[in-house]
Amino acid sequence: MHLYDKIYINQNLEIPISELRFKFARSGGKGGQNVNKVETKVELLFDVTKSSSLTETQRGTILKHLKTQIASDGFLHLISQESRSQLKNRENAISKFIRIIGEALKPRKKRIKTKSTVAGKEKRLLSKKHRSDIKKMRMKVD
């Protein structure tokens, strides 16, 4: 993946790369001496509340669906440290961002309430009657 000017989430949304902020830090895990001297961990920051590329409905949808991942300051934080390369981790963070924002903006199906069938009700009542008869059989007879 090559870094372009804009990130395409779906046909209705593209976000300029300038709206994303990146922080770099030393990563834990594999890498030997590389871990101690190279900042390969990438943290992607996106200000959902102040983004000019989002409409109000998109902003509301993202805030609703990603409320556990968005901090109180309105920033979406994503961390990538799987690779030993800062560039690969940066690309990985952008891929995560595209996937997460895309999933949050997908329209949800509305649940259609269903009614229980007459046959279903009869079956339930019949099983209750059967259970009641079994318990009556356990009672002492006078």
Give a short summary of the structure.
With 142 residues, the protein is an alpha+beta fold. The chain has a single domain, classed as Double Stranded RNA Binding Domain, CATH 3.30.160.
Secondary-structure element pattern, one letter each: EEEHEHEHH
* Radius of gyration (Å): 27 Å
Query: Low-confidence runs (pLDDT<50, min 5 residues)?
Result: none
Taking the alpha carbons of the first and last residues, their distance comes to 85 Å
Total DSSP E strands? 5
Q: Write out the strand line-up for the largest beta sheet, numbering strands in chain order.
A: 3-4-5
Please bin the fraction of helical residues.
25-40%
Give the structural class.
alpha+beta
CATH topology: Double Stranded RNA Binding Domain
The percent range for strand residues is 15-25%
Query: What gross morphology would you assign?
Result: elongated
Highest CATH level, the class: Alpha Beta
Q: What characterizes the major β-sheet?
A: 3 strands, antiparallel
Number of domains: 1
Second CATH tier, the architecture: 2-Layer Sandwich
**Count the helices. How many?**
4
Average of per-residue pLDDT values: 86
